Amino acid sequence: MSATARTVARGAPWGRAATILVPYLWLLLFFAAPFAIVAAISLGDYTPDTVPPVTLTWSGKAYALLVGDALYAAAYLNSLRIAAIATIVTLLIGYPMAYTIARAPAGWRGPLLMAVILPFWTSFLIRIYAWMGILSENGLLNQVLRGSGLVDDPGTLLGTEWAIYLGIAYAYLPFMVLPLYASLEKMDAALLEAAADLGARPWTAFRTVTLPLSLPGIVGGCLLVFIPAVGEFVIPDLLGGTGTLMIGKVLWDEFFSNGDWPMASAVAMAMLVVLVAPIVLFQRARARDLAGR
Amino acid sequence: MTRAFLPLASAVGLALLAGSAWSQGKVVNVYNWTDYIAEDAPKAFQDATGIKVNYTTYDTNEILDAKLKTGKSGYDVVTPTMSPHFARQKAAGLFRKIDKAQLKNYGNLDPEIMKALARYDPGNEYGVPWMWGTTGIGFNVEAAKKRLGDAPVDSLKLIFDPATVAKFKDCGVMMLDSPTDVLPAALLYLGLDPDSKKVDDLEKAADVVRKVRPSIRKFTSAEMINALARGDICLAFTFSGDVLQARDRGAKAKPTAVEVNYAIPREGSQLWIDVMAIPRDAVHVAEAHRWIDYLLDPKVAAASSDTVGYASGNKAAVPLMKTDVSGDPLIYPPEPVRAKFFTISPGDPDHVRLRTRLWTNIKTGR
């Protein structure tokens, strides 16, 4: 055995251990530890005159309130509903986009994908503020509508639930388009030719061949949009109306307005529980997708 | 209270001024409201004292509150609003006593404001007033004239009488997203004690707001200035400073100017005072006192009031201000109006929880 080979043989277990250790360390430091802290705070008592305003007692009072007050359940359900509708809107916009990009000439795909990601170069907050300018009473959209003479009184979109769907669809569109593109792009075009040869009209071919084959992309994209949309705070706060009850806003109120850290932590913990099902679903879909490759 | 239009960007402070003349690494870390000082003040302080100022800003009391309560915020001077925030933070022991001997300009302060502040800080031991203002009604002059004729606008009826508010629904009504500002005014409208902590009274006040709720486009603390100045809304219940800034911006709006004005309700108005205080764990205590003393200089205070258009807690500064600030009855109201100012006390945690809950229910129509 040469000297080099011996070094590699000796070094290999080290390298492997380090490679495995790094992601675990990362998870421990940036997920498990903060999670444990939030869990501990959620079980404590709110004591406004201490720094920080919580005493670790393991009393779990916050959870009793969480279950006892109908507001929280209503907020969770409403968040799930809004996130679901926004996800469908995003899918309806994202699918044709991903399809077009995947079918575009190879040289075009790179630039088109780039264009999808490009808005990320600007701050998220600034882009949402831009939407406020577009959707407001005297905003760009209404000026165009009035100027065109088609509509006299277009009403105001800003402050409605539709503004929230629009905002979420806009902000999360790349998360929908990219997984869809990935599954559409690897589809063999010969399958469609075969379908056509066997007498399928384009729509039938799409429904029976393309759509089922892109299902992993649809599931992946939808969950990538749905999961963060449930806890979304900025978009409903800025684009939505005051009447929209969402869990992100309730959490803000508990933490900042009431200064009640245990309650805010309990709301956050409950949100995690609510999202466990879609996250597990996402992992399964991805595992299936990988296995199918 | 809130005074800018990027509520979430507030945490991103601007470390101003690459210091030129600072010696021995002397530093003071200042955390202040956005747009709340003459722009050249930190630089001038640095040139005069050799102390480097790290000047950063926030735009909601809640952000400051969360930072202070987490501990070790790193700030040497902060500016919370008197009540409930400063009062609650003081009760939690978050501040250190001001050493008045180190403030040679202390005598310039306005005794009337000091007295109002002393209700929450007996002997003014922990806080030094910076600027103050009122809570009232912002309106679009043209829209109000069209709907009300020559009827007076300086009444809480304008925002709490359902029939009156409904007249403004089509052109847009906004109200502060703040139970501590709206519910006391609603109590006053009912002829009750605005500082009442009785559950029954609070429920009655909530009902007042519920009845006008259908006419309100949005409860917000951050969008009033622009919305008023652009003509997107025509009626708002908010802080004096927001409306006065909207008045200035509206006058410059293009293509057509938007005429906005402010009215202090004749029933009474909640007085707010922003207070300079030194966190208990501040490191640069001597420098913090130097900074506060610098701002107490009448010339510096007057320049800042000229810039931002708020009344100063500094009485000696008033004669040095531009007359369109010091002479504006909406900024410096006359004695009969001042006599009806009120303030509210913080309340215990149960009360705070009930209030926030009522507020959420009002907003979501529950």
What key attributes describe this structure?
A: about 290 residues, mainly alpha, MetI-like fold, 13 helices, about 0% strand, globular, B: about 375 residues, alpha/beta, D-Maltodextrin-Binding Protein, domain 2, 2 domains, three-stranded parallel beta sheet, 16 helices
Structure description:
The complex is a heterodimer of chains A (293) and B (366). In chain A, a hairpin with a 7-residue loop joins β1 (45-46) and β2. A two-stranded antiparallel sheet of chain A has the order 1-2. The longest helix of chain A has 40 residues, at 3-42. The relative contact order of chain A is 0.13. Chain A has a single domain (68-291), classed as MetI-like (MetI-like fold), CATH 1.10.3720.10. Chain A has 293 residues and is an all-alpha fold. Chain A contains 13 helices and 2 strands. Chain B is an alpha/beta fold. Chain B has 2 domains: 8-133 and 271-332, D-Maltodextrin-Binding Protein, domain 2, CATH 3.40.190.10; 135-270 and 344-363, 3-Layer(aba) Sandwich (D-Maltodextrin-Binding Protein, domain 2). In chain B, 40% of the residues lie in helices and 16% in strands. Chain B has 16 helices and 15 strands. Chain B has a 5-stranded mixed beta sheet with strand order 8-7-9-6-10. In chain B, α1 (41-49) links the parallel β1 (27-33) and β2 (52-58). Chain B is globular, with a radius of gyration of 20 Å. The interface between A and B is large, with 32 and 43 residues.
